Each structure stands twice: as C-alpha cells, then as structure tokens.
Amino acid sequence: MISYDTVSEAVNGLKQRGYNIDFNVEYDCIVCHETPLSLLPNEFEITEVHRFEGDTDPADEAVVYAIESKHGEKGVLVNAFGIYSDSVSDELIEKLKMQHHN
Fold it and tell me: Is 2 contained in some domain?
C-alpha cells in the first residue's frame, strides 16, 4: 500500500488513482452531495485506510478511507477521529472501526 505524509497528499493520490467521489458520513450511510449516490455499510468496501495524527494539534487527526461500492464507484471519505461521537448508526460505526483498526 502507498504511504502518504499528509491528508491532502492522500486525498490527491487516491483521486489520481480513480477515487473521484467525495463521500461524507450521514446517520446510517455515506453520501456524495454532488450526486444522488448514498451507500449503506453493506454496499461498500474500504480498500485502503490512511491514518494521520496531528503532532501538535489534535484537530489535525484524521482518517482517509478509500471506498469502493459494490457497483464499482470509487471515492474518498475523510473523517476526524471523533466520528464515533457523532450521530452515526452503530452499523456504520462498526464498518469504519473494523477497517480503521486493521
């Protein structure tokens, strides 16, 4: 797996490799606000996880997920480590935590 030094480097590198959709977390799914695409946890796989820890500022901590849907759409989900305190379904939390710790 390719290693990146920063969040922006990871996002740009993944986009160059075809992960062009920008995903965001909703309650029970991930969505792209520019298209009508929304995916439940059983409709996508996480193909790569890149974790970044802020050296001096905890606000800089983030995880970059490379996402691929069951239908071949590819995108990127960037999330702060605090996702688990947001209003997110247990099923989505488990999907992201499981991949995050692998």
Answer: no
Show pLDDT as tens, one digit a residue, over the chain (102 residues): 789 999 999 999 999 999 999 999 888 899 998 888 999 999 999 999 998 886 655 556 788 999 999 999 999 999 876 555 457 778 887 887 765 554
Domains in the chain: how many in total? 1
Q: Are 26 and 36 in contact (CB under 8 A)?
A: no
Q: Please report whether residue 35 resides in a domain.
A: yes
Query: Among 71, 72, 74, 96, which Cα is nearest to 83's?
Result: 96
The strand pairing partners of 23, in sequence order, are 77
By residue range, what is the domain housing residue 16? 7-100
Enter the pTM of the model. Answer: 0.83
